[in-house]
Amino acid sequence: MAWPVVGEPVWWEFAIRGVMLRGTVQRRAGMSASGAVVAVHGGPGVDGAGLRHVLAPLAEDAELVVPDQRGHGRSDLATAASWRLDDWADDLAGVIGALQLHRPVVVGVSFGGWVALRYAARHPGQLGGLVIAASTARLLSVEEGAERMGSLGGPASAAARRAAYAEPDLEASPAFERHVLSLMAVREPGPALRAVRAAQVKTPQVNAHFTPQFSRLDLTDDARQVRCPATVVVGELDPLTTPQLAAATADACPGRARLRLVPHAAHDLLTDAPDILLEEIHWALAARD
Prior knowledge:
Elements: E1 10-16, E2 19-26, E3 36-40, H1 49-54, E4 63-68, H2 85-98, E5 105-109, H3 111-122, E6 129-133, H4 142-153, H5 155-166, H6 174-179, H7 191-198, H8 204-210, H9 220-223, E7 230-235, H10 243-252, E8 258-262, H11 269-272, H12 274-287
Helix pairs in contact: 2-3, 4-5
């Protein structure tokens, strides 16, 4: 494979578990890599373009690999029966094996954090480090989620969250965008990230299929099976989780994970705290076993 300069990712494709998966690998030409970082995008229902853009500086001295998960982006859509954490986790193991990566640091952002936790539990001998960002092992219940929204955005945010739990189609309503989605970031994304997101490939059917499981997910047992250095990075103003759940996730990891609570940041760490996310990934690269 001919390595590009930073900013020019090379696309790959592999048939993994009966599905064609596609993604990118990126490293500065002529540089020896200090390790590999595999970044798992959020969603569900959007591709890995945002991670490729924000995490590109890692390719200065590491291999940066960003797959589009099955059902996302340039990878095969597959079927709804396989839009499951187990499938996404096993796909990730297949990609890492196909690329012959040696004990990479796996970074899961938002929904990708759950995939990364499930992967770490199912394939503990393959990775050398784990970063869970804007994600926790357990999510808030329906009522806890509404209360969390209310604490950050007021009664209108709590009401919009409750209404959308009862009727998911309301997530497309102006009230949901104004009172709930507005809480996902404290800052506005820069023009470049905004342009990248505008061009993302979206598969809303995957989101509609999986999001009803959110309030029932509990990956605490998966966290207890992590066997490598781990980091949990969560914005203190994240409307989808809490600092307490972040601490519980870190505590569940054997030996306890490194915990980074980011002040003045919400759920969208790619917008609110990209430098801190990069800092924690660099720490994970140095600490990987």
